Amino acid sequence: MRAGRQVESEQIMELIARCVQVMQDGGSDQWDESYPNREVIQEDLEQSNLYVCEVEGAIAGIVVLDENQAEEYGAIHWVQNQGPHLSMHRLAVHPEAQGKGIARRLIAFAEDHAVRGGYTSIRLDTYAKNSSALRLYKSLEYDLRGEVNFPGRTASFPVFEKVIG
């Protein structure tokens, strides 16, 4: 795992486009052409918050780790109220690499990053229609803390927390 590089923005956008297509083909409107867009990814890269997992020299997955929480998180009853808290965003695995443990590797990296950074918890949300992500987070002992809604989406976003340490 390593920080993504500016020169990889096209490869990252292609990975996202492939993920969006698979989501939409499966009936999910979690991501679309407007999110995550090129500007969002460019900002992630500029802030060195986007990490990549490579397999055989190609980017197989990405995750963004920062302290930014959606405003909607304010309504969530968190277990760990003492900070700082690490937020996990935009976890994506190239469709051709799915089912090979890439997401688990990215999450393990996020957890190690949280420990090294002195974070007290990891917070994230995923789409209610994303059954594989829901199963994954539960299997990795992330606790469901509630749900939020974002404009333009037909389903809610379950919110998870994992206390670190």
Automatic annotation (TrEMBL):
Q: Does the keyword Transferase apply?
A: yes
Database matches in Gene3D superfamilies: 3.40.630.30
Q: Which residues form the N-acetyltransferase domain?
A: 1-165
One GO molecular-function annotation for this sequence? Answer: acyltransferase activity, transferring groups other than amino-acyl groups
Keywords noted in UniProt: Acyltransferase, Transferase
Please indicate which superkingdom the organism of origin belongs to: Bacteria
The family database entries (InterPro entries) matched by this protein are listed as: Acyl_CoA_acyltransferase, Bact_Acetyltransf, GNAT_dom
What is this protein's name? GCN5 family acetyltransferase
Q: Say which species the protein is native to.
A: Paenibacillus wynnii
